[in-house]
Every structure is written in structure tokens, then in C-alpha cells.
Specification:
Elements: H1 3-19, H2 37-48, H3 52-63, E1 77-78, E2 83-84, H4 128-136, H5 140-145, H6 147-165, H7 176-182, H8 188-204, E3 206-209, E4 215-218, E5 252-253, E6 259-262, E7 265-267, E8 269-270, E9 282-287, H9 292-299, E10 309-311, E11 318-320, E12 327-328, H10 334-337, E13 340-345, H11 357-374, E14 383-385, H12 394-397, H13 410-416, E15 431-434, E16 446-447, E17 450-454, E18 462-464, E19 498-500, E20 504-511, E21 514-519, E22 522-527, E23 531-534, E24 537-541, E25 547-548, E26 577-578, E27 583-595, E28 605-617, E29 622-626, E30 630-634
Parallel strand pairs: 5-11, 9-13, 9-14, 10-13
Antiparallel strand pairs: 1-2, 3-4, 6-7, 8-12, 10-11, 15-20, 15-23, 16-17, 18-19, 20-21, 21-22, 24-27, 24-30, 25-26, 27-28, 28-29
Helix pairs in contact: 1-6, 2-6, 3-8, 4-6, 6-7, 7-8, 11-13
Length: 637
């Protein structure tokens, strides 16, 4: 049976049921809509003949049953069922077009200006709201904003997919194919991964309170899966042969080109031999601000930039493009690029405010795998957002990118990584780790849909720092972002005065319910309820030093460079780290420079120096200090 025929028959069946007086949720005249979210799932499941556990499991993997105040996800999905509407979501460009950041971040080479071209929004998975609207005869705008109708639309889609398979069963495991189809995946491996994750959630059970206050529960339900249905979906096979990924994720190999252009130019990454040549110390979390299809086109363009992995939003599917041993061009800082793996997460809606649970889950599984393989600690000193990567020299600070932004839920992500942020100290141990309640912490950002326009309130892991212990005090000043010395603003991308969940700062002072931390050479105040007490090591200028330099990269001293390799300048950033200030130490950073400016990788060299740096949490971004310039001690000493 064709998809269009099954849709017509389903609409006819629903119409016949209404004519016969069938009870429906918010559809039958005179029938009151469900008053609880749990009731909405139960009613929609009954109306469309979908097992309630299946409907709940699919919705949880998309949205965790949240409404997100009617805002779209970063990939244009709306409501608990993540019905997509790419037109309504006001798609934007890619984050690599915004600002002046050179993705390579290597001043030894000419700047690489990406040219992304047009977005590709052709994927049917980006317009599921239209199909759902036809199925239940409800306007698409209502489906985007009304949770009850959104759940009905998702249930109708599942029922259509089940009908197309010709399976008539109430057993949840017999809906395996429909669930796999709901993922929007075009390949068997990613459809299987999504369906397996849904049914794992059903088998384990889950209960939580949604962002708008509804308690929803999915009781643990053993399921006997009919996985053979995958063969009936007509999906393509997946090339997993070259991927470095957990086997159960079904990662796809879509290689980025390593191609010479002539005149010594080439793209779009550098060959290396990590971790033998250099240790991999970082995993960098990005948001593409482009559709999955556009992102794949770009990473296969030898004149563009690169990253190791791309993750699709609706189903969490992962494609790998660059081997971990090689250096991708993604973070805007060559020192970090040379020691990191980059993950791009699909997202393109300019006003998108949330990420799908499916993508959080596959991303966290991939990061756990990579962290274990390369010995990367699961903390916010090694798992960085692109917005935490420092500029290389003073002139590059302002142009650095700010993704994945303040709506990425770092607390939930680290729970999935099995490394949650917990208190490790007391108010006397000298450090705090930022940890607001994501759901209730809703900073009044502006600029999501035009300069100065207030963003719709939404949960966030960001805490705004103040110059004094009061809510209406001015923000701090980041002279790298705002050279005129003006204070930070609430514009969505202005992180002049913001701490992010998981970041650890040294305590400067306490007053009542407020605590001040050292931040960019200033005292920044936040409420102690937005953080947990921590303990660790801090760096402070050596005794007798009025101030010390702060760096954006940990490059060797000039004498370390062999003949024929020009020394890279050890240039301080524009900030001041003064006597009496303390900053949390994240890791020891050896001085290294990966010289890779030729297509022939036999000419690539790792230069190592005698200098050693410490990475510190200096502001919203990390920074480096020379170990010879600081005293290091326990945070409570």
C-alpha cells in the first residue's frame, strides 16, 4: 500500500469514527480535552490505536515530554512529538558564517573563509507537521503550539506508518517498524538505533515532571521486538566499515576530502597520527546552525572546513567524516584543533531553543566511547563547547563563535555521560561549579529573532554574573568582546559576563546568599543556589608579581623550533590576571605546535618545548598561563 493511499484510508476511517460518535481527544464536538499530559497520551493512543507505551517512548526520546513553550528545537521540531516545520522555524545560516573566526585558528597559514552557500531543507523529516495536519485535519499552527493536538498528530503519524506495514497488533514490540520510520532516518542502521533506544526506554521505564509541570510516567514494560520489520521499510544500507563509534549506534562513514588544489593549497583537514604524535585532550561540542543535509554537503567540500562527526537531530544518527588520528578544522584555535575531536550537532533554527533527547543520547554514548578510548576525563575542562575555546591572539578573540549556546543542557548531558555535576566540597573549600536548575533558570535573553527582541523564556544552563550582589547590578566587562569597556548585555551571543553549567571558578568573596568568583580579572557575583561547592587546585600569580600574562594557546618557546620551522609567537591575550586573584586549574597543557602547512603529511612536525602551561577557567572561555608565572595550591589553602 502506498503512503498516500494509507493516509487517505486513515483519514476516512477517522472521519467515519467521528460520524459514528467515536470518542476522541480534543476532536469530537463536546468532548473536553484531557486535563493532564498523561491523559493526552492515553487519549491519543486510544484514538489512533497506538500502544500507549510506544507513544510515550517515542515522545520521550524526542522531547522528554516537554512542550518547550511552543518553541522549535534547533532542528525545527515542535511540541512533545517533535513535529517538524522548517519554514515556521525561521532557519538561519551556519555558525561558520557568523563572525570572523578562522576555523583552523592557525596564524601560520592564510585565513580560511568558508562559503556555505544555500541551505538544503528538502528532507521530508523537516516537514512532518504538514503530514500530521492532513491526518487529523488540524491546522499546522495549532499542531505547533497545542500539546494535546501535537500528541494526536504524532500518534496519527505512528498509526499511518503501522498501517503502511500492514501489521494489526496491540503488542508494543510489533510497532518496531513504525517507531523506526518515525525517526525520519533514510538508512537501516540509524532507524534501528532510534527504535532500539525507544524500546530500551519502554523496558526500563521513566517518570518525570515536564517543563510545564505535568507528571508523566512510563511504567517499565518488557517488550518482545519484531526487528524483522526493518527490512520492510525500504531503507538503504549504511557504510559503517570505517567508523570509530560504538557498534550499536550504526555510525555512517561519509569522508571529508583531503585534496590538493595546486599552489600549495589543500583542504579540508590535516593528516596526523594521533594519539601517538599528540594526545587527544578535548572533545568539542558544536551546533551546526545548518540542516543535516547542508552540513553533509559542506563537510564534503574540500574548500570548506571539517569536523570529525555530525549528529542528526530527530533520530540522533551519526556520520563520521575525519578519523580521530587526523586534525579537523573546526574550533578556531589551532592548538585546540590539534588536540581535539569535533562533534557538530544538527541545528539551524535561528530561534531554536532545545535539542532532542535522541541526539543527546547518541552524542553522550559517542563521547563516552571516545573518552574511554583516548583517556579523556569527563569534565568541563576537557569536554568544551565551541563557545569555551579561547581566541588565539587578541585580534581573534572577538570573532570566536558561541555555539552550542545557552540552551544546551550540560547538566542533562553529563548525567547521560554518567558524570553528573555534584558537590565535592563546602563553602570553605574555595571553588564553585555552576549548576543552576535548567528548567526554572530562564535568563531574559534578547536577539533570538532580531536585535533587541526578547527571546521567549526557556530553560538554560547559563548564569549571568553581576558586579555587585544584587539582581539589577551591571554585568562584568569582557574587553575582548567589548573593547570600549562597556558591560555585557543580554543579547543571546554576548557571553561577556556568563558562567555555564559545569564550569568551575575560584571563590573571591561571599555575602549572604551571594558568592563572587574571579572572572576575567574581576569579581563576578552569582547566587550560591546556582552553583555547588567544589574543591580542587587554583593558580595565582607568584609572590611579588603584580600581574601575569594569559594566553589563548600553549605554544613552545622560540628556541624549541628546529631550523626551517618559523617560531610561532607566544602572544598574551588582552586580559590581566592580577596578584591576589585565583583561577581553577583544569589541566596541565604541554607546550606543543603541530606544524602542518603542506599537503604531504611527511612534512608535518610536532614541535615540543620546555615551557608548560596550565589551563584555567578564566571567563566563559578557558585560557592558559605559564606554570612558571603562578603558584598552584589547593583551593582551600
Amino acid at each position: 500500500m502506498s503512503r498516500s493511499t494509507s493516509r487517505t484510508l486513515l483519514i476516512a476511517a477517522v472521519a467515519a469514527g467521528l460520524a459514528a460518535g467515536m470518542s476522541t481527544a480534543a476532536a469530537s464536538p463536546g468532548t473536553a480535552p484531557p486535563t493532564t499530559r498523561q491523559g493526552a497520551y492515553a487519549a491519543a493512543a486510544e484514538e489512533f490505536g497506538v500502544p500507549e507505551s510506544v507513544l510515550l517512548g517515542v515522545s520521550y526520546l524526542e522531547s522528554r515530554w516537554d512542550t518547550n513553550a511552543g518553541l522549535p528545537s534547533t532542528s525545527a521540531g515542535y511540541g512533545p512529538m517533535h513535529l517538524t516545520d522548517v519554514v515556521a522555524a525561521n532557519s538561519g545560516g551556519t555558525h561558520h558564517d557568523d563572525g570572523t573566526e578562522d576555523p583552523r585558528g592557525d596564524t601560520a597559514r592564510p585565513m580560511l573563509p568558508p562559503s556555505p552557500g544555500e541551505q538544503d531543507f528538502s528532507a521530508p523529516s523537516l516537514r512532518t507537521v504538514d503530514v500530521a495536519a492532513d491526518l487529523i485535519d488540524v491546522d499546522a499552527a495549532v499542531l505547533r503550539s497545542d500539546p494535546v493536538q501535537n500528541i494526536r498528530g504524532g500518534a496519527a503519524l505512528l498509526a499511518e506508518y503501522q498501517s503502511a506495514l500492514g501489521v494489526d497488533s496491540d503488542a508494543p514490540g510489533d510497532w518496531y517498524g513504525a517507531v523506526a520510520r518515525y525517526s525520519g532516518a533514510a538508512d537501516t542502521a540509524s532507524a534501528r538505533t532510534f527504535a532500539n533506544e525507544v524500546f530500551t526506554t519502554i523496558a526500563q521505564g521513566v517518570s518525570r515532571v515536564t517543563d510545564d509541570g505535568h507528571r508523566v510516567s512510563l511504567p517499565a514494560t518488557p517488550v518482545d521486538l519484531d526487528t524483522a520489520q526493518l527490512a520492510d521499510l525500504g531503507l538503504r544500507a549504511t557504510d559503517t566499515s570505517e567508523t570509530e563509534c560504538p557498534a550499536d549506534l550504526g555510525c555512517e562513514w561519509i569522508p571529508a576530502p583531503y585534496e590538493a588544489f595546486g599552489d600549495g593549497d589543500y583542504g579540508n583537514h590535516d593528516k596526523a597520527n594521533r594519539p601517538e604524535s599528540q594526545k587527544i585532550k578535548y572533545i568539542i561540542i558544536h551546533d551546526t546552525e545548518g540542516s543535516y543535509a547542508t552540513t553533509l554537503r559542506l563537510v564534503q567540500d574540500p574548500t570548506y572546513v571539517s569536523w570529525q562527526y555530525t549528529l542528526r537531530s530527530a533520530d540522533g544518527h551519526i556520520a563520521q567524516h575525519v578519523k580521530a588520528k587526523d586534525v579537523a578544522w573546526h574550533a578556531g584555535n589551532w592548538y585546540v584543533n590539534a588536540k581535539s575531536i569535533g562533534l557538530e550537532h544538527e541545528g539551524f533554527a535561528a530561534n531554536g531553543a532545545w535539542y532532542t533527547e535522541a541526539m543527546y543520547r547518541t552524542s553522550s554514548k559517542l563521547v563516552r566511547y571516545l573518552a574511554e578510548k583516548y583517556g579523556i576525563p569527563l569534565d568541563r575542562q576537557h569536554i568544551l563547547g565551541h563557545d569555551n575555546v579561547p581566541g588565539t591572539i587578541p585580534s581573534t578573540v572577538r570573532g570566536m563563535h558561541w555555539d552550542p549556546g545557552p540552551y544546551w543542557d550540560w547538566a542533562h548531558y553529563f548525567e547521560l555521560l554518567e558524570a553528573p555535576f555534584r558537590s565535592t566540597g563546602t563553602h570553605r573549600t574555595g571553588l564553585v561549579t555552576i549548576r543552576p536548575d535548567y528548567a526554572t533558570n530562564k535568563p531574559a535573553f534578547t536577539g533570538c529573532d532580531g536585535a533587541g527582541v526578547p527571546c521567549e523564556p526557556h530553560g538554560s544552563g547559563t548564569v549571568v554574573l553581576r558586579t555587585e550582589p544584587r539582581d539589577d547590578a551591571p554585568q562584568l566587562t569582557d574587553i575582548g568582546l567589548r573593547p570600549d569597556g562597556s558591560p555585557g548585555t543580554m543579547h543571546i551571543s554576548d557571553h561577556s559576563s556568563r558562567g555555564e553549567t559545569g564550569q568551575t571558578f575560584a571563590i573571591a568573596e561571599r555575602r549572604g546568599q551571594w558568592v563572587a568568583v574571579w572572572y576575567l580579572g574581576q569579581k563576578g557575583w552569582l547566587k550560591s543556589s546556582d552553583a555547588v561547592w567544589s574543591v580542587g587546585f587554583v593558580a595565582t600569580p607568584k609572590k611579588g608579581r603584580e600581574s601575569i600574562p594569559v594566553y589563548g594557546r600553549a605554544y613552545p618557546e622560540a628556541s624549541a623550533y628546529p631550523p626551517g620551522i618559523p617560531p610561532q609567537a607566544v602572544t598574551p591575550l588582552q586580559y590581566t590576571l592580577s596578584a591576589g586573584q585565583k583561577y581553577a586549574v583544569g589541566l596541565v597543557a604541554p607546550s606543543e605546535y603541530y606544524r602542518a602547512v603542506t599537503y604531504d603529511p611527511t612534512n608535518h612536525t610536532v614541535v615540543r618545548g620546555e615551557m608548560t602551561y596550565l589551563q584555567i577557567q578564566f571567563g566563559h572561555r578557558v585560557a592558559f598561563v605559564n606554570v612558571d608565572d603562578v603558584d598552584v595550591r589547593l583551593s582551600f589553602s
